[in-house]
Amino acid sequence: MEQNQNICYSNKKILLHACCGICSGYPISLLKDMGYCVVVYFYNPNIYPEDEYKKRLEAERTLCAHFGCELIEGKYEPEVYYEYVKGFENEPEKGLRCEKCFELRLENAAQKAKELGIEEFTTSIVISPHKNFDKISKIGEIIANKYNLKYTSINFRKNDGFLKTNQISKSLNLYRQNYCGCKFALR
Fold it and tell me: By the number of CB atoms within 10 A of the CB, which of 3, 8, 13, 40 ranks highest?
Protein backbone atom coordinates (compact mmCIF):
# COMPACT_ATOMS: atom_id res chain seq x y z
CA MET A 1 0.00 0.00 0.00
CA GLU A 2 1.37 3.37 -0.98
CA GLN A 3 1.32 5.91 1.82
CA ASN A 4 0.82 9.60 1.21
CA GLN A 5 2.75 12.18 3.14
CA ASN A 6 0.86 13.88 5.93
CA ILE A 7 0.73 17.23 4.14
CA CYS A 8 -2.24 19.52 3.98
CA TYR A 9 -2.39 22.35 1.47
CA SER A 10 -5.70 23.84 2.61
CA ASN A 11 -6.28 26.37 5.36
CA LYS A 12 -9.84 25.06 5.63
CA LYS A 13 -9.54 22.49 8.44
CA ILE A 14 -12.13 20.13 9.82
CA LEU A 15 -11.90 17.63 12.65
CA LEU A 16 -13.51 14.32 11.74
CA HIS A 17 -14.48 12.19 14.71
CA ALA A 18 -13.87 8.65 13.44
CA CYS A 19 -15.79 5.75 14.92
CA CYS A 20 -13.87 3.14 12.90
CA GLY A 21 -11.79 2.70 9.78
CA ILE A 22 -14.63 1.25 7.74
CA CYS A 23 -16.97 4.16 8.40
CA SER A 24 -14.42 6.95 7.99
CA GLY A 25 -12.96 6.02 4.57
CA TYR A 26 -15.51 7.76 2.38
CA PRO A 27 -15.99 10.74 4.75
CA ILE A 28 -12.23 11.44 4.63
CA SER A 29 -12.23 11.14 0.84
CA LEU A 30 -15.30 13.38 0.42
CA LEU A 31 -14.08 16.03 2.87
CA LYS A 32 -10.72 16.16 1.08
CA ASP A 33 -12.56 16.52 -2.25
CA MET A 34 -14.51 19.41 -0.70
CA GLY A 35 -11.21 21.17 -0.05
CA TYR A 36 -10.80 20.40 3.63
CA CYS A 37 -7.62 19.56 5.45
CA VAL A 38 -8.95 16.61 7.45
CA VAL A 39 -7.71 15.96 10.97
CA VAL A 40 -9.04 12.59 12.14
CA TYR A 41 -9.81 12.12 15.82
CA PHE A 42 -10.29 8.58 17.12
CA TYR A 43 -12.07 8.79 20.47
CA ASN A 44 -14.21 5.75 21.26
CA PRO A 45 -14.24 4.77 24.95
CA ASN A 46 -17.39 2.73 24.28
CA ILE A 47 -15.56 -0.01 22.37
CA TYR A 48 -15.43 -3.34 24.18
CA PRO A 49 -13.26 -5.26 24.78
CA GLU A 50 -9.85 -3.55 24.62
CA ASP A 51 -8.59 -5.99 21.96
CA GLU A 52 -11.48 -4.89 19.75
CA TYR A 53 -10.53 -1.26 20.39
CA LYS A 54 -6.95 -1.96 19.32
CA LYS A 55 -8.07 -3.64 16.08
CA ARG A 56 -10.28 -0.68 15.18
CA LEU A 57 -7.56 1.82 16.02
CA GLU A 58 -5.05 -0.05 13.86
CA ALA A 59 -7.52 0.02 10.95
CA GLU A 60 -7.86 3.79 11.43
CA ARG A 61 -4.08 4.19 11.40
CA THR A 62 -3.89 2.29 8.10
CA LEU A 63 -6.67 4.40 6.59
CA CYS A 64 -5.15 7.73 7.67
CA ALA A 65 -1.73 6.70 6.35
CA HIS A 66 -3.39 5.87 3.01
CA PHE A 67 -5.13 9.25 2.80
CA GLY A 68 -2.24 11.25 4.24
CA CYS A 69 -4.33 12.60 7.12
CA GLU A 70 -3.22 13.49 10.58
CA LEU A 71 -4.63 11.04 13.13
CA ILE A 72 -5.07 12.06 16.73
CA GLU A 73 -5.63 9.14 19.05
CA GLY A 74 -7.85 9.95 22.00
CA LYS A 75 -7.48 8.14 25.29
CA TYR A 76 -9.10 4.76 25.71
CA GLU A 77 -11.09 5.34 28.87
CA PRO A 78 -13.98 2.86 29.11
CA GLU A 79 -14.63 3.88 32.73
CA VAL A 80 -15.67 7.34 31.44
CA TYR A 81 -18.11 5.72 29.02
CA TYR A 82 -19.65 3.44 31.67
CA GLU A 83 -20.11 6.35 34.05
CA TYR A 84 -21.68 8.47 31.29
CA VAL A 85 -24.24 5.82 30.30
CA LYS A 86 -24.93 4.69 33.87
CA GLY A 87 -28.63 3.97 34.26
CA PHE A 88 -29.06 3.39 30.51
CA GLU A 89 -27.39 -0.03 30.33
CA ASN A 90 -30.66 -1.85 29.57
CA GLU A 91 -31.80 0.54 26.85
CA PRO A 92 -32.33 -1.10 23.45
CA GLU A 93 -29.98 -0.45 20.55
CA LYS A 94 -30.76 2.96 18.98
CA GLY A 95 -32.20 4.07 22.33
CA LEU A 96 -31.13 6.60 24.94
CA ARG A 97 -27.87 4.81 25.76
CA CYS A 98 -26.75 5.26 22.16
CA GLU A 99 -27.69 8.95 22.24
CA LYS A 100 -25.62 9.37 25.40
CA CYS A 101 -22.72 7.60 23.70
CA PHE A 102 -22.89 9.90 20.65
CA GLU A 103 -23.08 12.88 22.98
CA LEU A 104 -19.99 11.79 24.93
CA ARG A 105 -17.89 11.23 21.81
CA LEU A 106 -19.02 14.39 20.01
CA GLU A 107 -18.48 16.49 23.15
CA ASN A 108 -14.95 15.15 23.34
CA ALA A 109 -14.41 15.83 19.63
CA ALA A 110 -15.62 19.42 20.06
CA GLN A 111 -13.23 19.90 22.96
CA LYS A 112 -10.37 18.56 20.83
CA ALA A 113 -11.31 20.82 17.89
CA LYS A 114 -11.39 23.83 20.21
CA GLU A 115 -8.03 22.87 21.72
CA LEU A 116 -6.52 22.62 18.22
CA GLY A 117 -8.08 25.85 16.96
CA ILE A 118 -10.21 24.00 14.38
CA GLU A 119 -13.58 25.70 13.96
CA GLU A 120 -15.49 22.84 12.30
CA PHE A 121 -16.09 19.23 13.25
CA THR A 122 -18.20 16.30 12.10
CA THR A 123 -18.40 12.53 12.61
CA SER A 124 -18.20 9.40 10.51
CA ILE A 125 -20.85 7.72 12.68
CA VAL A 126 -23.59 9.11 10.44
CA ILE A 127 -22.51 7.00 7.44
CA SER A 128 -23.97 3.88 9.02
CA PRO A 129 -27.47 2.99 7.83
CA HIS A 130 -28.08 1.78 11.41
CA LYS A 131 -27.65 5.28 12.87
CA ASN A 132 -30.12 8.17 12.92
CA PHE A 133 -28.55 10.98 10.89
CA ASP A 134 -30.94 13.70 12.12
CA LYS A 135 -30.55 12.76 15.78
CA ILE A 136 -26.74 12.69 15.62
CA SER A 137 -26.65 15.96 13.67
CA LYS A 138 -28.85 17.65 16.28
CA ILE A 139 -26.54 16.43 19.08
CA GLY A 140 -23.54 17.72 17.12
CA GLU A 141 -25.13 21.14 16.55
CA ILE A 142 -26.06 21.56 20.23
CA ILE A 143 -22.51 20.71 21.28
CA ALA A 144 -21.00 22.96 18.60
CA ASN A 145 -23.02 25.93 19.89
CA LYS A 146 -21.74 25.28 23.40
CA TYR A 147 -18.14 25.61 22.17
CA ASN A 148 -18.76 28.34 19.57
CA LEU A 149 -17.87 25.90 16.78
CA LYS A 150 -19.61 24.70 13.64
CA TYR A 151 -20.88 21.14 13.40
CA THR A 152 -20.76 20.31 9.71
CA SER A 153 -23.75 18.08 9.09
CA ILE A 154 -23.05 15.96 6.02
CA ASN A 155 -25.08 12.90 5.20
CA PHE A 156 -22.19 10.71 4.08
CA ARG A 157 -24.68 7.99 3.04
CA LYS A 158 -25.79 10.02 0.03
CA ASN A 159 -24.34 9.19 -3.40
CA ASP A 160 -23.67 5.58 -2.37
CA GLY A 161 -21.43 6.71 0.49
CA PHE A 162 -21.92 3.53 2.50
CA LEU A 163 -21.04 1.40 -0.53
CA LYS A 164 -18.00 3.58 -1.27
CA THR A 165 -16.73 3.43 2.31
CA ASN A 166 -17.02 -0.36 2.24
CA GLN A 167 -15.13 -0.50 -1.07
CA ILE A 168 -12.33 1.64 0.39
CA SER A 169 -12.08 -0.56 3.49
CA LYS A 170 -12.00 -3.74 1.41
CA SER A 171 -9.33 -2.35 -0.92
CA LEU A 172 -7.14 -1.60 2.13
CA ASN A 173 -8.02 -4.91 3.78
CA LEU A 174 -9.16 -3.11 6.94
CA TYR A 175 -10.44 -4.98 9.97
CA ARG A 176 -14.24 -5.40 9.77
CA GLN A 177 -16.16 -5.49 13.03
CA ASN A 178 -19.55 -7.16 13.34
CA TYR A 179 -21.15 -4.99 16.07
CA CYS A 180 -21.37 -1.31 16.91
CA GLY A 181 -18.82 -1.37 19.69
CA CYS A 182 -20.08 -1.47 23.25
CA LYS A 183 -20.56 -4.58 25.36
CA PHE A 184 -24.30 -3.90 25.48
CA ALA A 185 -24.50 -4.21 21.66
CA LEU A 186 -23.11 -7.74 21.96
CA ARG A 187 -26.26 -8.94 23.72
Answer: 40
